[in-house]
Amino acid sequence: MFGRRTFRIYDTKNGIEKLREALKQAETVIIGAGAGLSTSAGFTYTGERFKKYFHDFHLKYHFSDMYSGGFYPYNTLKEYWAYWSRYIYINRYMNPPKPVYNQLLNLVKDKDYFVITTNVDHCFQKAGFDRHRIFYTQGDYGLFQCSEPCHPKTYDNEDLIRKMVKAQGFDIAEDHTLIFPENVTLKMSIPTELVPHCPKCGKPMNMNLRSDDSFVQDDGWNIHARYYEDFLLKHKNMKTLFLDLGTGANTPVIVKIPFMRMTKEWPDATYASLNYGEAFALNEIKKKSICINDDIGNILNKL
Ligand SMILES: [Zn+2]
């Protein structure tokens, strides 16, 4: 609908002041969140954080970020799940290092808000956002599904993931932090009995993540998709702020493009793009847009 045209990244003049005012005025805030938001909260997948939890995997296989390790063709499911259970535990069950999600909730909690997110790390729920106001389009690290899939159901994996990381020698603190006990050499494998299999067909389980067409959209997913549609229908004529937080160029059809289209079509909508190095809005809606290129946590601090 915007046709094929070039765009450039830019900063709106006095963006912080304009965003503060837009937030104050808005009756409705619709948040669209992508990877940039969790990065700002400290969920990084490279560098120190990678080395801390995957040093042994790095030495053995030489990959140097969590994503690459997730794609490695491990010889056994016992090793595959040793890797993935650490990955899921630290990115789904541990709290993010910085309170960016909590700051965001403070800004919108007295508004009529809704969240649509491509993130699968559950940070909105952990920060206390109302679960009926969240649509997690791309799945959740905290859910398993049949890898086939032979049936469209998902399964909570917290208990099993905790057992898997403990079986490798980790301890878990009361605040959910993963602890490295002294003088323990971590195992890079889990016991056979902890390898998850589908309760119906017996095939291996997988994470409920949209990476290919085997992604299961279970009842929960469908219900939350409906919540989102209903919310949009009911708020079309309200004074609305579309807050695009760190959604990259990978999946623009989920947040960025629909947000810009609705900003154009809705009578009283503003679009704000907060993104470190990728904030832009198309010319058609430039007058209704606020673009700020900075770390999202920094921006929220200034509001
Ligand atoms: Zn199955």
Task: Give the fraction of residues assigned to helices.
Answer: 25-40%
What's the count of strands? 11
Strand order of the largest sheet: 3-2-1-9-10-11
CATH 4th-level superfamily of the largest domain: TPP-binding domain
The major β-sheet equals:
6 strands, parallel
Question: N-to-C terminal Cα separation, in Å?
Answer: 33 Å
Strand residues, percent: 15-25%
**Dominant shape:** globular
Whole-number total of structural domains: 2
Going by helix content, strand content and strand pairing, the class is alpha/beta
Number of helices: 11
Rg, Cα atoms, Å: 21 Å
CATH third-tier fold name of the largest domain:
Rossmann fold
- Main CATH class of the largest domain: Alpha Beta
Q: How do the helices and strands follow one another from N- to C-terminus?
A: HEHHHHHEHEEEHEEEHEHEEH
**Bound ligands, named by name, code or SMILES:** zinc ion
Characterise this structure.
- The chain is globular and about 60 Å long.
- With 303 residues, the chain is an alpha/beta fold.
- The protein folds into 2 domains: 15-40 and 99-137 and 218-302, TPP-binding domain (Rossmann fold, 3-Layer(aba) Sandwich); 47-95 and 158-195, no CATH class.
- Helix 10 (256-265) links the parallel strand 9 and strand 10.
- Helix 5 packs across helix 8 and helix 6 (100-108) crosses helix 11.
- It contains 11 helices and 11 strands.
- The mean pLDDT is 95.
- Zinc ion is lined by residues 146, 148, 150, 198, 200-201, 203.
